[in-house]
Amino acid sequence: MRMDPKKALILEAAKQTFSLFGFKGTTMGHIAKLAGVGKGTLYLYFTSKEELLHEIIRSLTDEMKQAADQALLQHGLSSFERIHAALYNILVFRKEHELLIRLFREEREFGNPVMKQALDLIEQEALSYIALHIERAVAGGTMKPCDPHITAFVLFKLYLALVHDWGLKHPPLDNEKISELLQLYVMNGLSAR
Question: Between the CA of residue 19 and those of 52, 77, 83, 166, what are the distances in Å?
Answer without folding.
Answer: 13, 36, 30, 26
